[in-house]
Amino acid sequence: MKTSTNTTPAAIAKVLVAVGVIENSQGQIFICRRSAHQHQANKWEFPGGKVESGETIPQALARELAEEVGITVLACEPLMQIEHDYADKHVSLAIRKVIAFSGEPSGLEGQVSRWVAVSELSHYDFPKANGPIIAKLQQAALDESSSDTLDGL
Ligand SMILES: Nc1nc2c([nH]c(=O)n2[C@H]2C[C@H](O)[C@@H](COP(=O)(O)OP(=O)(O)OP(=O)(O)O)O2)c(=O)[nH]1
Ligand SMILES: [Mg+2]
């Protein structure tokens, strides 16, 4: 007789998360450190949080960034979508680049936070799902600097 152990992926909830890559005028990115009691504890992250029912992704992003880091999002654009299965949780990250905002971000929930250059992002311990985001930001920065070089010819 077959037995079921209820450990199939379908048994693990999937969470939609709006994630903001906030960039300043010097091309630096704002990152925060997750607390010791959160999922993916103590890892660095791009601020954001779960999309609540009835919310669009931009609405969720605006609410989360106001709550967590105290900025008002004025404009954002899609950067990428990542599906990632952690053993205990499946996440769908809807990543937006925040290209205009008002206010100065800070860790309103007591989280450590800082602005970092794109080239320094790989020195920080992010959740596994974030690898492709960092690769994409670093590739875009390289493309931009090579087009600057060509402009100078
Ligand atoms: N905000 C954010 N979450 C990320 C990133 N990478 C990544 O795997 N995650 C995962 C960790 C969590 O499982 C989930 C986000 O949940 P969260 O704990 O931030 O959600 P939330 O802000 O609504 O939290 P809460 O107040 O309900 O506790 O997405 C990232 O760069 N930023
Ligand atoms: Mg959050």
TrEMBL record:
Keyword DNA repair belongs to the record: yes
Pfam family, one: NUDIX_4
Keywords per UniProt: DNA damage, DNA repair, DNA replication, Hydrolase, Magnesium, Metal-binding, Mutator protein
InterPro entries: Mutator_MutT, MutT-like, MutY_C, Nudix_hydrolase, NUDIX_hydrolase-like_dom_sf, NUDIX_hydrolase_CS, NUDIX_hydrolase_dom
Swiss-Prot/TrEMBL catalytic activity: 8-oxo-dGTP + H2O = 8-oxo-dGMP + diphosphate + H(+); 8-oxo-GTP + H2O = 8-oxo-GMP + diphosphate + H(+)
Start and end residues of each Nudix hydrolase domain: 13-141
Coiled-coil regions listed in the entry: none
Protein source organism: Oceanisphaera avium
Protein name according to UniProt: 8-oxo-dGTP diphosphatase
Family stated for the protein in its record: Belongs to the Nudix hydrolase family.
Enzyme kind, highest EC tier: hydrolase
Positions that bind Mg(2+): 48, 68
Binding site for 8-oxo-dGTP: 34, 39, 45-48, 130
